[in-house]
Amino acid sequence: MDLLRWTLIFLVIALIAAVFGFGGIAAGAAEIGKILFFVFLVLFLISLFYGRSRNRRL
C-alpha cells in the first residue's frame, strides 16, 4: 500500500511538471535564467577587477 501511495504522489508531481513544461513557463524561466547568468557574470568580472586594483593600492 505504501508503494502505491508513492506512485500516486510521483504521478501528480509529473502531471504538474508537464503542465508547466508544456505551457511555456519553462521557456520563460530558461530565458530569465540566461539573462541572470550574464548579469551575474558581468558583476563578477567587475568585482574581480575592482578587488584586484584595490589590493594594489594598499
Automatic annotation (TrEMBL):
<feature type="transmembrane region" description="Helical">
    <location>
        <begin position="35"/>
        <end position="51"/>
    </location>
</feature>
<protein>
    <recommendedName>
        <fullName>UPF0391 membrane protein NFI95_13895</fullName>
    </recommendedName>
</protein>
<keyword id="KW-0812">Transmembrane</keyword>
<feature type="transmembrane region" description="Helical">
    <location>
        <begin position="7"/>
        <end position="29"/>
    </location>
</feature>
<keyword id="KW-1133">Transmembrane helix</keyword>
<keyword id="KW-1003">Cell membrane</keyword>
<keyword id="KW-0472">Membrane</keyword>
<comment type="similarity">
    <text>Belongs to the UPF0391 family.</text>
</comment>
<dbReference type="Pfam" id="PF07043">
    <property type="entry name" value="DUF1328"/>
</dbReference>
<dbReference type="InterPro" id="IPR009760">
    <property type="entry name" value="DUF1328"/>
</dbReference>
